[in-house]
Amino acid sequence: MLDPGAVLDRGTQDEIYSVLVPVTTSSFGADMTPYWAGRRDQGYFSRLAEFIFVADAEDQIVGWTGYSVLNFEGYQNIYIDSSGMIPSRQSRGIMRALWAKRLVNNAFAHNRSQRLFVSARSESPILYKLFCGLVGRDRVYPNVGGALPEHIVRCGADLAAWLGQSAILERERLIVRGAYANLDALYDELPSTGDQALDRLFRKELGPLDAYLLVGEVASPGKPS
């Protein structure tokens, strides 16, 4: 649904929250009630350009995603907000296909004159791999190699400010310490990709409430996406 903050009345939003809590709790393996209480207070839907529920053949909700389109001086950043699938539907390529359709073939297609990024806040290496599938592994930051280009650091800093988390951002590493301070932990068990170097990037550097600001460079002026 496009522009959900304007389209959805309060009653409908409440109904969606009542569905999101059990679906996200199943996805992350931890009680997400306080998470969504906080997001509701922040005006979650009003910050999104689009919100999407994923349903199976029996019309049961099995996943969700949403994104915001952020315009900064000289570039645009598409921020993928809270997203996930219930365990039985994970690792099937559903979310990557959805993002490819809604972002690569839609939001990305309209930007050719300035730098364009896609971003997320996450402690999951699985989400990192999804980003690599969207824009290419050499365009996703932070990476195993370490150093960050200045324009990526700036993008992360601008995003942290928009999230209201500048004060807890480790700017040169794109780590937000205590990103999920209203939870005991985001995941019951941290996800793993089987890529030892990638998994180590997350497990070694992040505590249970920390997150990376993942930044993928989709295109820059005069450069193909």
Textual characterization of the structure:
The protein is of the alpha+beta class. Helix content is 35%, strand content 22%. A hairpin with a 2-residue loop joins strand 2 (61-72) and strand 3. Helix 4 crosses helix 5. The two termini are 26 Å apart. The model has no long low-confidence stretch (mean pLDDT 86).
Q: What's the layout of helices and strands?
A:
Blueprint: H1 4-7, H2 10-28, H3 33-41, E1 50-55, E2 61-72, E3 75-80, E4 84-85, H4 94-107, E5 115-122, H5 125-135, E6 140-141, H6 150-163, E7 169-170, E8 175-176, H7 196-203, E9 211-219
Parallel strand pairs: 3-5
Antiparallel strand pairs: 1-2, 2-3, 2-4, 5-9, 6-9, 7-8, 8-9
Task: Describe the structure using short key phrases.
9-stranded mixed β-sheet, 7 helices, alpha+beta, 225 residues
* Run of helices and strands: HHHEEEEHEHEHEEHE
Helix/strand class: alpha+beta
Q: Give the termini distance in whole angstroms.
A: 26 Å
Low-pLDDT segments: none
What is the averaged pLDDT score? 86
The radius of gyration is 17 Å
Biggest sheet descriptor: 9 strands, mixed
Task: Give the overall shape, derived from the CA principal axes.
Answer: globular
Number of strand elements? 9
Strand coverage percent: 15-25%
Number of helices: 7
Query: What quaternary form is this?
Result: single chain
Into which percent range does the helicity of residues fall? 25-40%
